[in-house]
Fold this protein.
Amino acid sequence: MADPGARERRWSVSPAKADGQRRRPRSIGKVEKRREQRATSGWEPVNYLRSTPRIMTREKIQEHITNQNPKSHMLKDPKDKLANLLNSKSPTRVFTETNHSQGEAPALSRNPGSPTIQLIEKQQGTKILFRKFSETNWSVDIQPLNKSLVTDSKWKRIDATQEKRRSFLQEFCKKYGGVSRPQSHVFHMVSRIYVEDKHKILYCEVPKAGCSNWKRILMVLNGLAPSAYNISHDAVHYGKHLKKLDSFDLKGIYSRLNTYTKAVFVRDPMERLVSAFRDKFEHPNSYYHPVFGKAIIKKYRPNACEEALNNGSGVKFREFIHYLLDSHRPVGMDIHWEKVSKLCYPCLIHYDFVGKFETLEEDANYFLQLIGAPKELKFPNFKDRHSSDKRTNAQVVGQYLKDLTRTERQLIYDFYYLDYLMFNYTTPFL
């Protein structure tokens, strides 16, 4: 039988409550004992929202630094951080202060090998480097090693064109500089840039703008091949013979960006887009058909046959455009139709030479003479693949665009708007 006094022990009437309402009394027992144990043992609650785990207090860290290495110090000045970051031969040890609230003691995380600290190192280096990029006005002064260029009227004309292209790009970046703020760290920003150390060249790869033959040239300059004409497509793209700028540490990246000749070759965005579609979807391809083709057909072709869904071949240009303009693409972007503004970041990296596919052979051979390449080395003028196909030009582009609506053509132009502006390409007739 229940204890008649149990209810009275569980509930009591508050003297402050004149209306007879009841409230629970403060519980006692095991909970209070655990709190006392925690209070006397130094236990404290874990804050899972803390950006980095608390390892040591500030005083203990400073004491540890003094005892272990009196010469060590925490760098507060960004210039000192940059110098330490770029000049140190060993990985930089970074001590980061944790954000705290509710009167918690400040703490520092000091595990340089942890993924958290590695990420912080990259972010700190990126911020410093990009601040340096934006504050530095590099003088464009490529002195030709071949003195005959100075008196040659043809090269004078090309040099004048180069000056106009660089000036136009610089003016654009001054006016629209905000559009090129970095969205990720420096290693991503330079991931498309190839390095040739002997002639001190940095070349940013823009697919469908002569990049295959430019890689052949870089292989010859590196001494990897005697001629650009006997290097196969697979050796160019899959041989991994060339170094990229993101393979260096921050010091190597920064020093090369400041001292090497930086070149980018671009192409009319519509021509480049159509060229990429023809290359990847109108010919057998063991990668683009199953990876991109299947996803595109599945989402943008109603009542697609089973064969098309299984092999991904036969993608139509309109379907490809729907994929390109879709903010929820079924498969990600690809460098062959990515914007040049996101491949080479020309408002963050100041390119010394801006070549164009429309004058590719002339621009490329002039650049080779500027950097002091061997006289016999000429830019190869041949198609890398599908040599029987007609080159993609304005006439070919028109044949593809005519099947699109005016709205779709306008949206393509909007997609590549920055590329049109940066490199002064004529607005297409839409």
